[in-house]
Amino acid sequence: MKKNKFSKNWIIQQKRDIFYKQSKIQGYRSRSAFKLIEINKKFKFIKSKSHLLDLGAFPGGWSQVASKLITAGKILSVDIKEMNKLEKVTFMKGNIDDGNFCKKIHKYFDKKIDVVISDMAANTTGNKSLDSHRSGQLCINAMNLAKEILKKDGVFLSKTFMGSSFFEVQENAKKYFEKVALYKPLASKSESKELYIFCRGISIL
Ligand SMILES: C[S@@+](CC[C@H](N)C(=O)[O-])C[C@H]1O[C@@H](n2cnc3c(N)ncnc32)[C@H](O)[C@@H]1O
């Protein structure tokens, strides 16, 4: 469909651009920052003393949001890509599918933590169902790490996708956590299969 000033697509795209423009104005490294800001406004889970792990952190928008909210807790950000330094944030480069790397994450905190956030997404191949399946698997891996490292009342927030892994993601979440909610923030593109799963309270200890 041709996009003109009156088409629905045009209006939607303009709204989307607001987040991009705001990220530039406010100095965020990604428009994704606004997703975390909105989700945290809703669930109020990042506290000034939180110890927080940010999975798939590059380029660092979510870590920036966390570092503004956390004044007396530790923030560890990880990604397979190198990330530019951020004040109050420790960065470790590695793949969370690698068990040895996960041991390093545990060692860094050396105790159970309050929050695990994951915005991980697999590199796109062009095959949408394969891409959403691979990204769903990343969510499952992040959840497995989260249930080991989180305190009893800890919070796990992760990007997930409406795809072949979605059922497994939801089932695992219900098994491991006391409260589970799905949320699609405004900054998440409406045509994207992406949504966020919010889990609070470990139920298997
Ligand atoms: C959408 S980006 C994250 C954006 C980030 N939350 C922000 O606000 O700037 C997804 C990231 O997940 C990372 N990623 C994908 N698979 C990963 C894995 N197995 N381990 C660690 N990071 C991974 C990618 O390298 C990519 O940088």
Architecture blueprint of SSEs:
Elements: H1 8-26, H2 33-43, E1 52-55, H3 61-69, E2 75-79, E3 90-93, H4 99-109, E4 113-118, H5 128-149, E5 150-161, H6 166-176, E6 177-183, E7 194-202
Parallel strand pairs: 1-2, 1-4, 2-3, 4-5
Antiparallel strand pairs: 5-7, 6-7
Helix pairs in contact: 2-3, 5-6
The structure holds S-adenosylmethionine (SAM).
Identify the strand order in the major beta sheet: 3-2-1-4-5-7-6
Which distinct ligands sit in these coordinates? Answer: S-adenosylmethionine
Continuous helix count? 6
Helix-and-strand structural type: alpha/beta
Total count of strands: 7
Distance between the termini: 53 Å
Q: What order do the SSEs take from the amino end to the carboxyl end, as H and E?
A: HHEHEEHEHEHEE
Please mark out the parts with pLDDT under 50 across 5 or more consecutive residues, or reply none: none
Domain module count? 1
- Give the DSSP E fraction (strand runs of 2 or more residues): 15-25%
Radius of gyration: 17 Å
CATH architecture: 3-Layer(aba) Sandwich
Write down the overall mean pLDDT.
Answer: 91
> What is the third-level CATH name, the topology?
Rossmann fold
Shape: globular
Look at the structure and give the CATH class.
Alpha Beta
Largest sheet: 7 strands, mixed
